[in-house]
Design a protein that fits this description.
single chain; 365 residues; 9-stranded mixed β-sheet; 9 helices; 15 strands; binds magnesium ion
Length: 365
């Protein structure tokens, strides 16, 4: 069995929330190279999604391996202490909420997505990282990939895929999970996935043989810290081809820039724009929210041929459309539905602003 473990955290960036300096990525690579030499891992991949550092490990230690978790915690802490803080980076160590390592990295603020499987004859995997948005931003795309035949013809054409996929949906408020099966429960599934302020997809399984197809990071930093301290930028892994949606079927879902929550101060809806790694940084209104995708081929656990999947003219039109969308919705300024609902803003300082107006309120005459 091979395990892929994806970790992500914002350890600091410049200028403002733009992107992490190259030193952060090179320090991560150096630390992971040592782990590889010590044979703790088989291979690794380091990249950034906007201001977040993303680290993918391949190894044979299985999911929730405490010794690997500790190594990642120590590495992220080392980068923060030795570089981010002395360099006075923006949000230095922002996502390291816990003071010290806690079991399972729970409550530390580091996002984790892990999957274990027997490597197939050929094992392509897509690694996604998004910035200035939240885990439920993936809901609409995952529905299209794994449940909508208009996006994924394999659901109709493939004997194995037509048996459908099982979605594990997490209630981010109540910390519970539910299993819903496509196609027979798609209406119920949509009732949850459409409620993006509360539900997000953690895993997707192929029903024919219970093979893992997708896993995503599910963190609610505001829930961990009790206040808004940055958006819960999501990442995910998707296995592709040979009984799973193909590379093209997965990427096709991103050919329309659906609106997601996040963007400025984690409080505004905006289009999710698929970009190449060179554009994996945020600028306008601290966004727009973006997503990058690195495709890899596994070779006995080795991570080979990392490929920048959105670096393609085929995505130019969705990018243009996203910018038009951004222009339109920005006109809405501080008004809903560009700005989030009061419920969605409850961890932000808007609550304090509204509370400060208490004395203004008089009895209705
Ligand atoms: Mg971020």
């Amino acid at each position: 069995m091979i395990t892929l473990s994806l970790f992500k955290a914002d350890l600091g960036s410049a200028v403002g929330h733009h992107k992490p300096p190259k030193e952060i990525l090179s320090m991560a690579k150096e630390g992971l190279e040592k782990l590889r030499k010590r044979k703790k891992i088989i291979d690794f991949l380091v990249f950034n999604a906007g201001d977040d550092l993303q680290v993918l490990l391949s190894h044979k230690k299985g999911k929730r391996n405490e010794s690997l978790y500790k190594e990642i915690w120590n590495l992220f802490l080392y980068i923060t202490k030795e570089f981010s803080i002395p360099s006075k980076l923006y949000g230095a160590g922002q996502d390291l909420i816990a003071k010290k390592y806690t079991k399972g990295l729970e409550g530390t603020g580091i996002g984790i997505a892990e999957m274990s499987f027997k490597e197939r004859k050929t094992e392509p995997v897509l690694v996604f990282g998004a910035d200035k948005t939240e885990p439920s931003a993936f809901n609409i795309f995952l529905y299209k990939i794994f449940a909508d035949p208009f996006n994924t013809p394999g659901l109709v054409i493939s004997l194995i895929m037509r048996r459908g996929f099982e979605f594990i949906v997490v209630d981010l408020e109540k910390h519970k999970k539910a299993s819903l099966k496509a196609p027979e429960e798609i209406y119920e599934l949509l009732s949850l996935l459409g409620s993006t302020s509360q539900y997000a997809v953690r895993e997707v399984y192929r029903r024919a043989d219970k093979e893992i197809a997708m896993v995503g990071t599910i963190t609610k930093l505001s829930g961990v810290a009790g206040k808004y301290i940055g958006k819960d930028d999501p990442s995910m892994l998707i296995r592709v081809g040979k009984g799973f949606p193909s590379v093209g079927e997965v990427l096709e879902a991103f050919s329309f820039p659906y609106l997601v929550n996040g963007w400025m101060r984690g409080s505004h809806y905006g289009p999710l724009i698929p970009v190449s790694l060179k554009d994996s940084r945020v600028s306008r209104f601290d966004g727009p929210p973006r997503i990058v995708c690195i495709g890899v081929q596994l070779k006995n656990g080795e991570i080979t041929y990392p490929t920048d999947m959105f670096e393609d003219v085929a995505f130019d039109r969705v990018r243009e459309k996203a910018l038009e969308y951004a222009d339109l919705i920005r006109r809405q300024g501080p008004f809903q539905p560009h700005r989030g609902t009061l419920e969605e803003m409850r961890y932000t300082s808007l609550k304090e602003v509204i509370n400060s107006l208490k004395k203004k309120w008089k009895k209705l005459d």
